[in-house]
Amino acid sequence: MASTFTYNDENSLFNFVVKEGNGVKGLVDSGLTEVPDRYIQPPQHRINKLHIAESLKDMTIDLSELDGPNHDQVAKAITHAAETLGFFQVVNHGVPLELLESLKVVAHKFFAQPAEKKAVYLKGVSPSPMVKYGTSFVPEKEKALEWKDYVSMTYTNDGDAHNFWPNECKEVALEYIKTSTEMVKKLLQTLIGNLGVKADDSRLDELVGLKMVNMNFYPTCPNPEVTVGVGRHSDMGTLTVLLQDGIGGLYVKKGESASKEDEEWIEIPPIDGALVINVGDTLQILSNGRYKSAEHRVRTTSTESRVSVPIFNTPLPVVKIGPFPELVARDGVARYREVMFGEYMNNFFSNSHDGKKSLDFASA
Ligand SMILES: O=C(O)CCC(=O)C(=O)O
């Protein structure tokens, strides 16, 4: 990899970090002591501690109870969370705890490799369009870059995963997808059932038919107060399952309508063995606005590098998404238009993170 670059020369920095695949990790390893200008967020996007409310400690749901006598109570807690914050955590979710530990280990292992090993998965050269290594979100379009490197693996079938996904993480990532699938379907069934809508098994499968597992790496940052790990955004899919490590730094916005000055953000505290679940735009659209996709973001830290491993469960690109007809009839209005999920996804990936603006693509 090229080793000469100038921190505050935009082109030279962009080439080093983005095009050559050195990532934020390469930047940090080069020994920088302060973040380059390109990473400095405008004040309104910085994570201001004054506006951060307490940690969300009391929204952890024991999913094993969904099959027992407390079913109704647990289903109510799930739907309440989806109608309000759009975020909750689950335990006894069916994903083995040792697997969760292995995921964190392999994520660190992947990013610890020399840049040239990771750069083989850069967009345009990756052996498969289903595997992509990169940094930030849409660097070409962002005024300020996000302090994050990632590798993204889209599941098509086991054979492709074995052939194309990175050796360092493919077995565990695949197992994570397989062991979480039933939980995701159960949650979706509960949420859709609560709307009084009938969705058979094949419709449920369609709505979470595309699975993308990402490994995110947030290196230590010398200036956490002016940077972000991930900027404010909601996820595009139906439900996201997220494993975070013990470092913390994931925040969700409380309420939808507050002005930037008044908004409150709540930290989703790391809980050993738990998985974080959040509602994505697709579920907000399907439910005609009843369930809220969660606007969230991630801060950086100067003490330790952080990893997280989300699975984005989304519809297949050819699936049409729009409010369930039963709800439109009941509400007397369709709050969103019907769109092909593939189009929604293309729009999502062509714009930098900007809160819940992604939903405008489907506004009625
Ligand atoms: O790292 C996290 O906790 C959240 C990651 C995230 O929001 C994303 O990858 O879209």
Automatic annotation (TrEMBL):
Q: What cofactor(s) does the depicted protein rely on?
A: L-ascorbate
Domain of life per record: Eukaryota
Q: Transmembrane residues, as ranges?
A: none
Q: Does the keyword Metal-binding apply?
A: yes
InterPro entries linked to this entry: DIOX_N, IPNS-like_FE2OG_OXY, IPNS-like_sf, Oxoglu/Fe-dep_dioxygenase_dom
What does the record give as its pathway? Phenylpropanoid metabolism
**What EC number(s) are associated with this protein in UniProt?**
1.14.11.61
Q: Which residues form the Fe2OG dioxygenase domain?
A: 209-315
Protein keywords: Dioxygenase, Iron, Metal-binding, Oxidoreductase
Q: What class of enzyme is it?
A: oxidoreductase
Name the family: Belongs to the iron/ascorbate-dependent oxidoreductase family.
The molecule here is called: feruloyl-CoA 6-hydroxylase
* Organism whose genome encodes this protein: Helianthus annuus (Common sunflower)
| Lineage of the organism | Eukaryota, Viridiplantae, Streptophyta, Embryophyta, Tracheophyta
